[in-house]
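hey
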């Protein structure tokens, strides 16, 4: 597939997807969803790619939301289908069995904030801005924002953000638990890649298990979540990577973890 709206490159075990419509502040149009979906499949099936990083081209934006210029031509049914398509792609991203880091270099508004929340964690530049400004357009978030925001920052803060449409700066977003680390803008990509490369050196099965157990556990009661954890712990324990990790510790050497999710 020839990408028109994004750039993609793989290096050192890390795939980097860059939203590349800087003149529209990297807003998401239907074509962009197809391209994100294609990249997810590519990363899923390529064993050499162990981590995915998402970022935005240009100085100003990660992604400034859904492409508003598409809205006047949509009726209610088409709008619903657009929301469902976005949700489908974001679920696909969330369930990729490899770590996904949002590297938020500027505005992450509306669909951009929803996209970042579908990643495993968010690193932000000190210039980043987050928000769900759909209320200003007479609509609500449509790509999972009301749901993921409430799970990440709590019900009251989610309702406040979606009702006021106000933007958060990076430090506010960190204080609320939306962002895990904030870096000076010129260091953001470098620092993100350091962590991405670290994750690429970890045992892929373990990263997948952490992701699945945490995500599934958030939707069930504590006892069921802990049962999922014990089951995954047992599976990891039987793996080649566990034998290697334990032997390496006892032999005082660096572990050589497998390259594949299948090992
Ligand atoms: N969809 C389509 N185009 C968008 C866009 C979006 N979500 N966000 C920005 N753009 C376009 C602008 O229309 C403008 O295009 P133009 O140069 O052809 O006029 C260009 O990107 C630059 O944006 P501009 O508004 O001039 O920049 P700014 O620095 O003054 O403001 C924002 C930046 C992000 C605050 C402002 O662009 C904005 O509010 N965008 C919409 C955010 C939003 O509501 N997202 C949710 C959509 S559901």
């Amino acid at each position: 597939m020839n990408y028109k709206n994004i750039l993609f490159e793989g290096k050192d075990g890390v795939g980097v997807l860059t939203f590349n419509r800087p003149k529209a502040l990297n807003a998401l149009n239907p074509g962009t969803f197809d391209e994100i979906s294609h990249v997810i499949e590519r990363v899923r099936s390529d064993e050499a790619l162990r981590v995915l990083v998402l970022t935005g081209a240009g100085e100003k934006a990660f992604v400034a939301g859904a492409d508003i210029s598409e809205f006047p031509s949509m009726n209610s049914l088409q709008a619903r289908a657009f929301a469902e398509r976005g949700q489908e792609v974001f679920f696909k991203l969330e369930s990729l069995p490899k770590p996904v880091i949002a590297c938020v270099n500027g505005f992450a508004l509306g669909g951009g904030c929803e996209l970042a929340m579908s990643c495993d964690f968010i690193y932000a530049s000190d210039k980043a801005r987050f928000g769900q400004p759909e209320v200003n357009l007479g609509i609500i978030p449509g790509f999972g924002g009301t749901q993921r925001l409430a799970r990440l920052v709590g019900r009251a803060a989610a309702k406040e953000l979606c009702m006021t449409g106000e933007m958060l700066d990076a430090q506010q977003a960190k204080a609320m638990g939306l962002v895990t680390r904030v870096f000076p803008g010129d260091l953001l990509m470098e620092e993100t890649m350091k962590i991405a490369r670290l994750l690429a050196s970890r045992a892929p099965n373990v990263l997948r298990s952490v992701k699945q157990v945490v995500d599934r556990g958030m939707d069930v009661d504590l006892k069921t979540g802990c049962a999922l954890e014990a089951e995954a712990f047992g599976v990891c324990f039987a793996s080649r990577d566990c034998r290697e990790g334990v032997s390496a510790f006892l032999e005082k050497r660096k572990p050589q973890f497998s390259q594949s999710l299948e090992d």
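The CA atoms of residues 131 and 167 lie 5 Å apart. DSSP finds ten helices and ten strands in the chain.
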